[in-house]
Specification:
alpha+beta; N-terminal domain of MutM-like DNA repair proteins; Helicase, Ruva Protein, domain 3; 2 domains; 5-stranded mixed sheet; 7 helices; 22% strand; DNA-binding
DNA sequence: ATGACGTCCTGCCTGC
DNA sequence: TGCAGGCAGGACGTCA
């Protein structure tokens, strides 16, 4: 599933391929994926616009257009972006096609949970509420132990759930939060307000490291995620707990456990994580 | 405000 | 082999 490192990889690879190109046509294959504005209006507003830049905010991929309009993609669980030549047909799960001067950008999304939004600089559509109140990204300089401490203070929820809270850790998802908790030696079931300062320090570092390593390895390909050229990322080769339930812990050999926390599958080592 | 939980959606896996 | 049912999971809505 595309979390911060995956979306960052897509952003970096997409930028040189589409920056400066003009959107010459817009084909909506599944109406559901156009969250704002209405599909007809959406097409009308973007055709003829130039892509000024490609950027990212947390898990959102952003195409900056002329007129300060922004095309915002959220890939959710299974969304991918592919760039293909003009003469090829869209792919099996293509939900939106942006035809550019010299290529086509496909928004592929088998599960149809991902969404696309078009926003202007002044409007803040309620449907994109989360986008406007994102917390700090773990790779940001502002993501310090003090920041995390302040945000987790008085919070009684399980640490795992709060790491997934985009108002606290923008861009975190299930894979990287399990990995970070493993590295920090913290059991995901722990209540956030019961975590010591020392542990918070370790956790901050683990979060920063795991995200940075995810990026330098071009993301994690476990289910649907691929890069814009269809290749896989590499970070799945370095996972210690995610997807390893029942297998021996890489540190101590204990079987990796799987538990539901806040309705999310959560993997951890019962011996290494306290 | 917080935390628990249901909902969306569909491909894929499991079990009969 | 084929089909039904369950599962995955990010963000958001609802409820207490």
């Amino acid at each position: 599933m595309p979390e911060l490192p995956e979306v960052e990889t897509i952003t970096r690879e997409l930028r040189p391929k589409i920056r400066g190109r003009m959107i010459t046509d817009c084909v909506i294959i599944r109406q559901d994926v156009i969250a704002h504005p209405k599909p007809a209006q959406f097409c009308k507003a973007i055709v003829g616009e130039k892509i000024i830049n490609v950027s990212r905010k947390a898990k959102y991929l952003i195409l900056e257009l002329g007129n300060k309009k922004r095309l915002v993609f959220h890939l959710r669980l299974s969304g991918t972006i592919a760039v293909i030549p003009l003469d090829l047909e869209p792919q099996k799960f293509s939900r939106l096609v942006l035809v550019l001067n010299d290529c086509q950008l496909l928004f592929n999304e088998p599960r149809v949970l991902g969404r696309v939004y078009l926003i202007s600089s002044k409007e803040r559509p309620p449907i994109l509420k989360g986008f406007y109140k994102l917390g700090c990204e773990p790779i940001s300089d502002d993501f310090t132990t003090d920041y995390l401490k302040a945000r987790l203070k008085n919070r009684k929820a399980r640490i795992k759930s709060l790491l997934l809270d985009q108002n606290i850790c923008a861009g975190m998802g299930n894979i990287y939060s399990d990995e970070a908790l493993f590295r920090a030696g913290i059991r995901p079931l722990r209540r956030a307000n019961r975590i010591t300062n020392k542990e918070l320090e370790k956790l901050t570092k683990a979060l920063r490291d795991v995200i940075a390593e995810g990026i330098s390895n071009f993301g994690t390909s476990v289910s649907d995620y691929t890069r814009t050229d269809g290749k896989n990322g590499n970070f799945q080769n370095f996972l210690c707990v995610y997807g390893r339930e029942g297998e021996p812990c890489k540190k101590c050999g204990t079987k990796i456990a799987l538990k539901k926390i806040g309705n999310r599958g959560t993997r951890y080592c019962p011996k290494c994580q306290h």
